[in-house]
Amino acid sequence: MTTYDNSSPIGATDLPAPSFWVCVLLGLMMIGAGFLVLGDIMLVTLISTIFIGWVSIIAGAFEIVHAFWTKGWGGFVWQVLLGILYVAFGIVLVGQPVESALILTYVLGLVFLISGVVRILLGISHWREAGWIMLLSGAFGVLAGLVILTGFPMTGLWVLGFLLGIDLISHGIGWLAYAWKPTTSAA
């Protein structure tokens, strides 16, 4: 009989932890990449938009091919239409990256604003279970959404690159923190 250990959050208990130096190197590389991105956030915003466009084109093409592979599953027409929509979206992003960056940034601002309001409401309704953390997170989301939307269209030229740079730096700091985490010994 096979038993499974579900104590690991990702189910990978037998994998060795990366070495200290691998974590440090990865953290420093991510932080360096983050500062590099922050050096020219407008260029990175355009590159990100083009990258998202190509990923959308590839995903849409695969969706269309997948629809033909699995014709008997049902929903063939919907899969083909969805694939065409992905491809068209990608073509627009690649063909007009400046305008597309503006649209993506506007949608991102709306998402931040709406998700922030939802998190504030959840934080209030779960106040006794440390809901203040969710409320604080929601306040940051609303603030980020308002900054993006009130500064639009100028924010459309820098927000995506800025967020990518900040994400890379925070990810790098996370790897550095992981490298210096205290080790626990199994007794």
Describe the structure.
The longest helix is centred in the N-terminal third of the chain and has 29 residues. This protein folds into two domains: 54 residues; 82 residues, no CATH class. Helix 2 packs across helix 6 and helix 4 packs antiparallel against helix 5. The protein has 187 residues and is mostly helical. The protein is globular. Helices cover 74% and strands 0% of the residues. The chain contains six helices and no strands. InterPro entries: Acid_resist_chaperone_HdeD, DUF308_memb. Keywords: Membrane, Transmembrane, Transmembrane helix. Pfam families: DUF308. This is HdeD protein.
Q: Give the fraction of residues assigned to helices.
A: over 70%
The strand count comes to: 0
List SSEs in N-to-C order. Answer: HHHHHH
Low-confidence blocks of residues: none
How many domain regions?
2
| Gap between N and C termini | 27 Å
Provide the gyration radius in Å.
Answer: 21 Å
Pfam families: DUF308 (PF03729)
Transmembrane segments: 19-39, 46-69, 75-94, 101-124, 130-150, 157-180
Protein name: HdeD protein
InterPro entries: Acid_resist_chaperone_HdeD, DUF308_memb
Attribute tags:
0% strand; single chain; mainly alpha; 187 residues; 74% helix
Layout of secondary structure:
Layout: H1 20-39, H2 41-69, H3 76-95, H4 97-125, H5 131-150, H6 159-179
Helix pairs in contact: 1-6, 2-3, 2-4, 2-6, 3-4, 4-5
How do you describe this structure in short?
Pfam families: DUF308. 74% of the residues lie in helices and 0% in strands.
